[in-house]
Each structure stands twice: as structure tokens, then as C-alpha cells.
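User: Batch of two.

Assistant: Item 1 of 2:
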Amino acid sequence: MLQGIIAGHEPAFTATYNHYQHMLLMEAYYKIRSYSEAEDMVQEIFASLWQRREKLSISIPLKHYLLKAVHLQYAYKCRKSEVARRFIQHTLYVSKEATVNYVLENKEIYSQIRDAMACITAPACRRAFELLYIDNKSHKEIAVDMNIKPQVVKNQVSRALKVIRTHLKKVI
């Protein structure tokens, strides 16, 4: 099957997908406990497999390779959500015991982030960023809201983050 995928034969890819999809879905669900996110992970794995088919050099059984891909996707999602959670906590959260200076600093940081978000010229990028990081929606939920594909959501958020980073580098 793997040689067929590398050669670009869609029937080989379809057979591989049909054979391993359920197993990978269960493995992903076991890790994240969200069926929709597990489906997204498995789709991303197979999309990546197809996109990188010509460059694949797999020395282990395909089953083990795909299970490892689930594990790596899960680790990536954990890292990404932890970074986003910390980002929002550090910039938007103000505890009741905070000093006046701390409150003012948070307001200033929040204002700078809002200014940076205003620099995002593409409305779709800004909306995708806000839905993901402020409204805590998943890529799939955003895709449904905006009537676009999840990969397009990821691309738009990535573009928005580049603009925000650039703007914040100037400020800091």
C-alpha cells in the first residue's frame, strides 16, 4: 500500500485510509476525548501523508508510523493550546488581589494586543483569530461559522499571528 501511495495511486491511498482511519480515530479520541477534534487530527494526518507522499521515507510498518503521527499531532495540539491559554491568561486576566500598577499594565498590554489586531487588514483573518483565541472555538467550529475549510482557518490564523507578532515587536 505504501508504495502505491508514494507512486500517487489514489486507490492505494483510499485503501490505506479505509483500513487505518477507524483505528487512528479511536487512538486520537482516547487522547483528547473529543470526537470532532479526533476527526480533525486524523484528517490532518492523512492529508499530510498524501501531500508528502513523494518525499516519504518510512522504515517502520505503516501502522506504527500512523500511530506515531497521532501521538505527535496530540503533542502539537497540547503545546499549541497551552501556549494560547498562557497568552490569554497573561494578557487578559486580572486577579482581584492585583495592584493598581498590575491592572494598568494588563490594560496596556490588552490595548496593545487590540491595536495589533486592528492592524490585521484581512477581516477573515482577524475574525478567525478572535474566534480561536478570544472565543475559544476549535478550528472546525470556526470553519463551520465562516463556511470555509479548517485548513483555511489555520492559514488565516497563522497570517494574523504574523501581523500581531510584527506589531508587538515594534511596541516592545
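Item 2 of 2:
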Amino acid sequence: MAKVWTTKEIQYIKNNALLAETNQVLNIEQMAEKLARSVPSTKSKIYKMQVDGDLPSIDRSKAFDAKNRPFTKREDKRLISMFKQGAGSEEIGVALGRNKKIYHWKDNSP
């Protein structure tokens, strides 16, 4: 049976979560250790707190790394335009600063 989160533990997370520009919690491992909880359990609780509005939700549009950042409308238009003009996945990936695996739907290259 799962250990129930106490009000004190929840308050600790609210008070001690170090948030990046994207609101992603950076110190999950340290908080898990302090709370004597597993990292997966702590990650799960933080996610639930974000969904419930007890912590700010993650804003991937502010991510520095393009891997998890959503496409902007401008990027969508450029991708569609390049695709219609016959550009390959690697060319599109390079042009948009993205990994070509994102465009795997275009061709069957690994």
C-alpha cells in the first residue's frame, strides 16, 4: 500500500521546489531524499500538484532545448511548406533546429 502524503510533506515541496524558466522542478532528487521518498514517487506527487494547480504547470514553450518545446505556428507553417516542396526529414530538422527523428513520418530512414 502506498504511503500517504502528509500536509507537512506537501508544504515542503511547495516551499522548496526550485523551478526553471519552464516551471520544471529541478531538485526532485534532493527533495525525495529529504522526504525519505523515492524519486518516482516524488515526481508523481509533483506532477499531480501541477495538474491540481498547487504548483505552476510546465511551460515547454520556454524550453531552451528544442526537443521538448512545442512547435510555434511559424515553425508549423515552415515545416508544412518544406514538406510540400519535397524536403526530407533531415533537411527539415536542420532548418528548424530540431532532431530529424521528429520527422520520421516523412520517410522511412532511421
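Confidence is low (pLDDT under 50) at residues 103-110.
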